[in-house]
Amino acid sequence: MTTALLLSALIGYLLGALPFGWLIARKFGINIFEHGSKNPGATNVKRVLGGMFGKKGKRAGDLAFFLDALKGAAAVMAPVWLYAFFFLPRGGLISADAPPPPTMEQAVLVMHFAAITGLVFALVGHSFSCWTRFKGGKGVATSAGGLLVLLPLPTLFAALAWTLTFLISRYVSLASIVAAFALPGAAWLMPNMPRPFAIIATVIGVFVIIRHRANITRLCNGTENKFSKKPVGDMG
Question: Where along the chain do its domains lie?
Answer without folding.
Answer: 2-84+103-221
